[in-house]
Design goal:
about 60 residues; mainly beta; two-stranded antiparallel sheet; two-stranded antiparallel ribbon; 1 helix; elongated
């Protein structure tokens, strides 16, 4: 699975983690993804969606 939001395209980014002595080590910042049923291109699909897209209303949930 690619760790990526299927609505906005948000994905993991690289950065540094700093200790108390200011030593740098590489780390990964991951988006807050959730597995949800959404309507994409007129079809109901299961997709990984970030919480920002869910809060802003970009995700269209299927009706029952």
């Amino acid at each position: 699975m690619s760790y990526k939001c299927e609505i906005c395209g948000k994905k993991s980014v690289q950065g540094n983690s700093y200790s108390h002595s200011h030593m740098k080590t590489k780390r990964t910042f991951k988006p807050n993804l959730h597995k949800q049923k959404v309507v994409l291109e007129g079809k109901t699909q299961t997709a990984y969606v970030c919480s920002k897209c869910m809060k802003s209303g970009k995700v269209v949930k299927p009706t029952k």
